[in-house]
Amino acid sequence: MGQRRTQLPDSRTTPRFAGLVTFGRYPRLADVAPACAPVDWAVYGVPYDSGVTYRPGARFGPRAVREASQYLKAYSIEHDVDVLEVLSLADAGDAPVSPYHPKQTLDGVADFACEIGDPTHTKLLALGGDHSIAYANLRATHARHGGGSPLALLHFDSHLDTVDAVWGERYGHASPFIRAVEEGVVDPKRMLSIGIKGPLNTKRDLDYARDHGVTIVTAEQWRAGGASILDEFKARVGDAPTYLTIDIDVADPAYAPGTGTPSVGGFTSAELLGAIRLARGLNLVGADVVEVLPAMDVAEITALLAAHAAFEVLALDAVRRSTQH
Amino acid sequence: MGQRRTQLPDSRTTPRFAGLVTFGRYPRLADVAPACAPVDWAVYGVPYDSGVTYRPGARFGPRAVREASQYLKAYSIEHDVDVLEVLSLADAGDAPVSPYHPKQTLDGVADFACEIGDPTHTKLLALGGDHSIAYANLRATHARHGGGSPLALLHFDSHLDTVDAVWGERYGHASPFIRAVEEGVVDPKRMLSIGIKGPLNTKRDLDYARDHGVTIVTAEQWRAGGASILDEFKARVGDAPTYLTIDIDVADPAYAPGTGTPSVGGFTSAELLGAIRLARGLNLVGADVVEVLPAMDVAEITALLAAHAAFEVLALDAVRRSTQH
Amino acid sequence: MGQRRTQLPDSRTTPRFAGLVTFGRYPRLADVAPACAPVDWAVYGVPYDSGVTYRPGARFGPRAVREASQYLKAYSIEHDVDVLEVLSLADAGDAPVSPYHPKQTLDGVADFACEIGDPTHTKLLALGGDHSIAYANLRATHARHGGGSPLALLHFDSHLDTVDAVWGERYGHASPFIRAVEEGVVDPKRMLSIGIKGPLNTKRDLDYARDHGVTIVTAEQWRAGGASILDEFKARVGDAPTYLTIDIDVADPAYAPGTGTPSVGGFTSAELLGAIRLARGLNLVGADVVEVLPAMDVAEITALLAAHAAFEVLALDAVRRSTQH
Amino acid sequence: MGQRRTQLPDSRTTPRFAGLVTFGRYPRLADVAPACAPVDWAVYGVPYDSGVTYRPGARFGPRAVREASQYLKAYSIEHDVDVLEVLSLADAGDAPVSPYHPKQTLDGVADFACEIGDPTHTKLLALGGDHSIAYANLRATHARHGGGSPLALLHFDSHLDTVDAVWGERYGHASPFIRAVEEGVVDPKRMLSIGIKGPLNTKRDLDYARDHGVTIVTAEQWRAGGASILDEFKARVGDAPTYLTIDIDVADPAYAPGTGTPSVGGFTSAELLGAIRLARGLNLVGADVVEVLPAMDVAEITALLAAHAAFEVLALDAVRRSTQH
Amino acid sequence: MGQRRTQLPDSRTTPRFAGLVTFGRYPRLADVAPACAPVDWAVYGVPYDSGVTYRPGARFGPRAVREASQYLKAYSIEHDVDVLEVLSLADAGDAPVSPYHPKQTLDGVADFACEIGDPTHTKLLALGGDHSIAYANLRATHARHGGGSPLALLHFDSHLDTVDAVWGERYGHASPFIRAVEEGVVDPKRMLSIGIKGPLNTKRDLDYARDHGVTIVTAEQWRAGGASILDEFKARVGDAPTYLTIDIDVADPAYAPGTGTPSVGGFTSAELLGAIRLARGLNLVGADVVEVLPAMDVAEITALLAAHAAFEVLALDAVRRSTQH
Amino acid sequence: MGQRRTQLPDSRTTPRFAGLVTFGRYPRLADVAPACAPVDWAVYGVPYDSGVTYRPGARFGPRAVREASQYLKAYSIEHDVDVLEVLSLADAGDAPVSPYHPKQTLDGVADFACEIGDPTHTKLLALGGDHSIAYANLRATHARHGGGSPLALLHFDSHLDTVDAVWGERYGHASPFIRAVEEGVVDPKRMLSIGIKGPLNTKRDLDYARDHGVTIVTAEQWRAGGASILDEFKARVGDAPTYLTIDIDVADPAYAPGTGTPSVGGFTSAELLGAIRLARGLNLVGADVVEVLPAMDVAEITALLAAHAAFEVLALDAVRRSTQH
Questions:
Q1: Mutant choice from B76, B77, B273 vs A, greatest count of A C-beta within 10 A
Q2: Domains of chain F
């Protein structure tokens, strides 16, 4: 068993309850010696929630997820891979934000994200914040991959997030994917939304997906055999660059009480983690985990779930790399 | 897509976090112009909990469920029906109550319920309060339908609620259905209790059901294929007037911590909502959702589940009407 | 003892835990017969929190304060006055809001407020929302009183709220009074801020008050005898129209955990209520109670304190009217 | 320093977080060898809350207070007395209760209480439960002292509790003292109510006290020098048998969030404990601490305060006995 | 239906919310008349948490589980057995503990446990406390059964608990089974660990099981059909003395937020209780339920689940005895 | 107004809710350019709680206090000093810890602390952890000042912390000062303990103070005029090196619910901060703030109070330096 590529604090003197907090106890990006090879993934936070339509507070999400991530371990028994052995990882801190001027703020987040680590090598895992920040991380990811063909998108969520505008604002948390499609960042025909559930505002909310070719799998459909649709998606997408976005409200309020627009009848944590694991094989080039709202969380369980969802993203990439070598 | 029959506040200026609270943001019954056709369903609260045997506090249930219901939307993706397009809905406020004299209080609730809206047209959805209030709403529903044959009863609960008396009180929350049967309001042979689970006080608790023909499906049996018993129930009941009663403690404490007699091993929210949806086709003439205890709730998840269970009741009626036309 | 001018629901059948929620169980303004004399005070909510600089969530404040206000009673033993006998009161619902475009939203709130009840008679008590909404209610109050001389301002707060702009936004919750002074709505020389405490961002935060003549009483100074400054203020202001603004964070986090920018070392609830009572005699023409953030509240104590602070405002007016007759 | 008269578990092997729970870790009354001298005080619970007018749940109060009392220590630094050295103490368990039939239940509580320990020697400290249980403990205390002259009553509370009836019920938690006076158990002219505060329902709530000679000290009056009224009361009562009743809602919601009818502007814990200590010298013959509602408590602070209030009662008796010897 | 062998307090006068607390309301072992036959099972607590590696606080676990157990009933509908009819049960209080010197403390616990009831008849059910206490109860159980062949072990947990030492301590909560195997108390080849899940610290954590023949079923494997492995285990173990250990963190944080090392993706309560029930037929000679951490619990749901898990252990033995007769 | 000596992140792009967390948003000590002058104060955490006698969990205290400290501002209005202008400050991270072997762990903490920054210049502010860590920080502080005469000690606490040993352990949280005195680190005759309150275990707990000359001011004495004793202490100590230790449980549970041994009747936050401010003028050479237990905290209020208590320590030194120049 090899040396780990990502070094953590020595747990004999710095237990998991000790030390300044970074995601997963990974080193700060600024502390990774520049002579080293660039890190494979940089985790960064976007403490921004001005895109919300109901409960605000996800601006405190990155802090809560980082704190819960102190208990993350490294070896995935399900994938038989040690994430820290395969990947070099770092925490890049938080993007610049202000609560006002959504478009400008998201542009600033995208600019920050474009410069993290080695743009040609380092992949980005963003911690929200509300779902509008996915638009910024998607843009940065797309740009860092040359800005060519739009990305495929695997989307776990209770909501479609393809509303054109709310209160006249086009960059809120109900709209990230409609914007990303408009800008050529995401290919709607290779977009798969898993976990959607009602009630919706109106039936018209489904029009965008139908008209643009987005595939929707409701939570009920997933349970009744939706995994085959994911397999079909994987076959169709193949090795194309794919982005993975996880809205924690895809989990039921019992598992994710700390979120802004909770949706009853959602996934158990086992269903969510299991579904992510099924994405094994995709060529993930970026990801986000969003909508953790600590003020409504209880006993940190939402943040803990989000931290583990983020871990599963890294594990997907680690197992893909392990398998390829 | 037609005009909605139930008008909500304009969400552009009155977002879901704004406005005086009514169930689902539906109009107050008193505000529905009398010249209009009578509303199809009236939701009303029964802030009463003197029937409890363990934790009190469900008197605050109607208030909590109404508040959680602000986030209810209208279109059921599972049934492909927009509840607000098909149904005219209103909130009739709370029934008169006092914590003393259970029988008299429940009589007063039934009297109040009898007079809501148009007795020959408007159906009643009661929000508890403890389960004893089902007795009152059942009586009112039966009376409004002419008081003839007893109603069929579909019952989601962890408990049987057919105990004769507790501490000498015959109208507590363990007894609503034994009373309803005695008074010819419910037909025990067309009563189906889903989600029952142990431990029970004694095996004798099962005698009433056995002796009177009530069908019991335990939570374990439901998971192992109980849906077929519901199908059989639907075939047997056909178009007969049926009442639906949902004790929120049928859901596991992880999903419904805010309840008075929590029962471990209960349904997930997906199991509960899915089971209600399977009742599609029944001729529902009244319903209740009971036993929400806000003081034990966390992050409003119990109230949110109860609000959505109530929505599913309305959706069942909406889809039946849609299908019939 | 006379008939009460404000009728509440009959508590024998509608106990305090029953009924649709309005502030203090007062009638909805729309339900007060138009033939009646106009109400003396209208309470309304402003569910808006886009002005915050730290924790958002006060958009849910009006709802929480109304719910806590169900336990308000009417007779002030300290002032020997029954508020419901002296005043006719109503709840005017919530102002229109959206989370974006602060200035436009506050303009909309002011427009709404200008039209409530009888503009020449009815006084306005606004429930926040964050403190930026005071700017809107101040403007409406000033306009309804003819728009002449600026109002005197009595201000309970841990913070000065005279910052010019934060993140470039000039209408946030740190700026309502600088804006109100600029627009001639408030007279800074007759503005008294009680309960200010450190640490402040920089000493420069005090410049505005020094340069414009605002009187500051820190929490420590208040305890050491600040009441005399309030007496001096009352003598100076005399019968001039005065507005009272109460930021609940003037109370210590032990009393008001549910607020956005908690300030340690604040008033006890007895100190706060006692200080408000000392304002007896002022000619109050409008008021607000702001910054209740329910997601951080515990056991409703912040909302309960805010509801009682609002009651004390009404009691001040009631006792002034009683004394004058 | 003498041997302690009350033996606790050995804290070297049974720390405060270990062992079956009794109040203060005192022995169960049934375990005190009958050959011993009778215990000086027996603590017992009354898990009953059907007397409440707002939030129920105080039936779980005795259990919570006992649990919080595990951290009670024995030596009062303020009185310089070790309670366990002076007094023999025991926990007598809970009185029989049912949630129905208030009068009969309270009669049953009184009957149970009459029989505890040695009726001619053992004093009773009851843990509520709602305040209606004071009526039962008062009756038992009066009877055990021969049933002659009515007792003097020292009363800490936010509320007067001299309402004749609520919802027609004459034995609720708003009425214990009116009943006790009617039955000759309490002498209203030697009844002192400390901590009363508004708002009250109506001014008429004060009539009973005025007409019957009850002395009222509001919370504001207490802070402004009410201790002198307590001194005067002590002088007037002298050595007459006196009962002490403590409604935990006399403390502010910041200190006692876990109570049924919280009253803003109440005592700090230091004010409450200090006030009880001032009662030193009175001839206490019985007491109660009531209205702890665990479901609304946070971090056990209400129960902890109640446990310490109960301790102060015992300390008053211990110091009186110590001083007399 | 026969007389119950275990007598509970009369619920007509001592409802479930009344009375001094023992597990399940069973009699204290000291109160069971010595002339009686020895009790079949004694429940005892081990309020000790110095073995933890992350969050401490399980020392308060026995108290919380006992309190939650007040709502336990007796008749298992799933097994059709009344536990109180078949078994005589008692609560033996808490073992002696101190937070220091883990090995000595656990030795003391084992010594205490060896002496409970009739060592040749009474079986022991220990309530933790952290998982290190299983080592003590295992040793006592083994000794009481003659100390011969090592016990078979059925183990529900998210973690393997076969780490040699943490911070140099060999008796912490990650090590109970490695110690028990070393001492000949447990046979690793007849040890089945169900519910294991990642991430683990390193792949090397699996070495012990592989090298010693422990069978591991991950949570994912269990859902995919692990019950057959349990059947195979039962066939292999036959009638041999078997110990059952349940770490509550095998349940997902949504069901067991109150635990020290929560593990995302765990069992639902229905999965956990169902899995325990499948152990029917094993010759259980001792058991424990551990790792309840009340300070992180919400609405008592973790404690409630633990109490019911303990009940299921008793039900397993009751149904085995019933079936044999 | 001068340039600040301690640079914080730019709040325009890194608001207080953004960025990796350090105490007060101060730079990490490792990031302060070595060419700079040494920092004046280094804050470090000691995530250790194996010294507790009741509730554990303070190991998570440093993390919680750092998070609450994000809202700290810089200008003390009470002292008229800007801490960041006068002092250069940094966060040195956490000391090495393990939960076992208290003495060795505390030795390791002291060793770590001895090496922080410039031992001849940088002062140490330790964040607990339980109070036993004061022993380690005291030793390091004493050593860094040459190890000569014992330090004077100003001590805010509800407890004396001069117990010789608990469960045989001499380095627990009840014993730091008895050890520090024994080792010549603290001079008991210049030790002042403020806020002590009962009940105590026994009167003998006072013997140590009496026999060694420690001055005790109870909470009651403080309120009745204890400030004069502090003045006398300051006069007596003069310019001698003085250490300040603050156990957050000196504040009442209403203000500090999140602590391990809460003590009823404690200081309000205003009393605590005011008392610290009165220490102005002392020559502080080190300090600690301890016993924050996040799992029992509500709405972060305990952590917020602790962060502000730490700020007041820095302000004391800043104002002393400002005054001297």
A1: B77
A2: 23-324 (3.40.800.10)
Q: Which tens digits make up the pLDDT trace of C71-99?
A: 999 999 999 999 999 999 999 999 999 99
Confidence bin at A35 (pLDDT 50/70/90)? low
Taking the CA of residue F264 and the nearest CA in chain C, the distance in Å comes to: 14
Q: Which residue of D has its CA nearest to B96?
A: D167
D174 pLDDT exceeds 70? yes
**pLDDT > 60? residue E84:** yes
Q: Which residues contact D91 (CB under 8 A, 6 or more apart)?
A: D22, D23, D24, D26, D27, D28, D29, D42, D43, D44, D66, E20
Q: How far apart are CA B217 and CA B197, in angstroms?
A: 9
Q: How far is CA F34 from CA C79, F37, F39, F43, in A?
A: 65, 8, 10, 17
pLDDT (tens digit, 9 = 90+) per residue, C147-169?
Answer: 999 999 999 999 999 999 999 99
Residue F203 C-alpha, separation from nearest chain C C-alpha, in angstroms: 32
Distance to chain C for A47, nearest Cα, Å: 11
Chain B residues touching D55 at Cβ < 8 A: 57, 60, 295
> Are the beta carbons of A98 and F22 separated by less than 8 Å?
no
For chains A and E, CB pairs below 8 A equal 95
Rounded Cα distance between A132 and A247, Å, is 11
CA B139/CA B137 separation, integer angstroms: 5
Residue that is written with structure tokens 């020094």 in the block: C210
Asked if F267 and F252 count as a contact pair (C-beta separation under 8 A), the reply is yes
The count of residues in chain B is 325
- From the list A17, A59, A97, which residue is nearest F59 (CB)? A17
Q: What percent of chain F has a predicted confidence (pLDDT) above 90? A: 95
The band of B1, judged by pLDDT with boundaries at 50, 70 and 90, is very low
DSSP secondary structure letters along E129-185: SSTTHHHHHHHHHHHHTTS-SPEEEEEE-SS----S-BTTBSSSTT-HHHHHHHTTS
Choose the closest CB to E12 out of B167, B200, B204.
B167
What pLDDT, in 10s, does the model give residues A223-247? 999 999 999 999 999 999 999 999 9
Closest CA to F253 of E255, D273, D275: D273
What pLDDT, in 10s, does the model give residues F54-89?
999 999 999 999 999 999 999 999 999 999 999 999
For residue D4, give both structure tokens.
Answer: 């302690």
**Contact (CB<8Å) F73/C198:** yes
Rounded to the nearest angstrom, the minimum Cα separation between C297 and chain A is: 10
DSSP codes joined into one string, F228-239: HHHHHHHHHHTT
Cβ contact, residue pair B94, C67, below 8 Å: no
Instruction: Give per-residue pLDDT as tens, D57-101.
Output: 999 999 999 999 999 999 999 999 999 999 999 999 999 999 999
